[in-house]
Structure formats: structure tokens, C-alpha cells
């Protein structure tokens, strides 16, 4: 996928704390829980609850957020379309990680089973 540098730079500068309330609202509107959202985020990033809370309350950009994350080795199994683009075809590594998170949250909100979201079976 060919995205503009401008788009990638905007994504990099978004703060996780600024996006998090929207992610939470999306899953809760669909009957899922904050704990489930945290489970998905922790699976992708390798963060524990304490580190995740630090990011939720902080001013860290997505670039800093994912630089600190230890991406799950199965993250490459996240495939499909989000925001009109195939996540597996996104060329910018940071933008791809952000879209991985978006895709997981979307799957959670759509009611997909946690085992499938976490690529466990």
C-alpha cells in the first residue's frame, strides 16, 4: 500500500491517550468491556496493565507508544481491511502497527471470539 508521508506523520503524532477513549467507546457501544479491550491491547503490545495505564494517562505519541511496545510475534497474522486498506499491505511499519490495533478493536466490537482476535486458534 502506498500512503503519503503526510498521512504517516499524522498517524505517528496522534497520542494514544487521545485515541483510547474512542477505542473504548467503540467496543462498549457494541457490548464489549474495557477489560476485553485491555486484553487485546496487551496482547498486541506486550504491555502489562501498569504500563498500559501509564500510556492511557500520558501524552505519548503513537510513535513513542509503539517504540516502547514489544509487538506480539503473531501480529503478522492480523489481516484484512481497515479504513479501506489491507493491513498486511501497509508499507510504513508504524502505520501498520496502528492499523493492527484498529483491526483488533474492530474485530472485538463486531463480536468476534477472543480466541480468534488473539490469533490463538
What would you note in describing this structure?
It holds the Pfam family DUF2200. By secondary structure, the chain is mainly α. It has one domain (5-117): Orthogonal Bundle (Helicase, Ruva Protein, domain 3), CATH 1.10.8. Helices cover 60% and strands 3% of the residues. The chain is built from seven helices and two strands. The protein has a two-stranded antiparallel ribbon. Helix 2 runs parallel beside helix 6 and helix 3 (34-45) runs antiparallel to helix 6 (93-109). The relative contact order is 0.19.
Topology pattern, helix = H, strand = E: HHHHHEEHH
Counting DSSP E segments of at least 2 residues, the number of strands comes to 2
CATH hierarchy, class: Mainly Alpha
How many strands, what sense, and barrel or not for the largest sheet? 2 strands, antiparallel
CATH architecture: Orthogonal Bundle
Percent in helix: 55-70%
End-to-end distance, in Å? 28 Å
Whole-number tally of structural domains: 1
Proportion in β-strands:
under 5%
Name the shape in a single word.
globular
Q: Report mean pLDDT, rounded to a whole number.
A: 93
C-alpha Rg (nearest Å):
13 Å
Structural class: mainly alpha
What's the CATH H-level superfamily name?
Answer: uncharacterized protein sp1917 domain
CATH fold description: Helicase, Ruva Protein, domain 3
Amino acid at each position: 500500500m502506498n500512503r503519503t508521508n503526510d498521512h504517516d506523520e499524522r498517524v505517528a503524532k496522534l497520542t494514544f491517550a487521545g485515541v483510547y477513549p474512542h477505542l473504548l467507546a467503540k467496543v462498549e457501544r457494541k457490548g464489549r468491556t474495557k477489560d476485553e479491550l485491555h486484553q487485546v491491547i496487551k496482547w498486541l503490545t506486550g504491555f502489562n496493565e501498569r504500563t498500559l495505564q501509564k500510556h492511557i494517562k500520558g501524552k505519548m505519541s503513537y510513535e513513542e507508544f509503539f517504540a516502547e511496545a514489544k509487538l506480539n510475534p503473531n501480529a503478522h497474522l492480523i489481516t484484512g481491511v481497515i479504513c479501506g486498506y489491507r493491513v498486511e499491505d501497509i508499507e510504513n511499519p508504524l502505520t501498520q502497527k496502528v492499523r493492527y490495533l484498529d483491526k483488533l478493536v474492530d474485530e472485538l466490537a463486531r463480536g468476534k471470539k477472543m480466541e480468534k482476535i488473539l490469533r490463538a486458534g
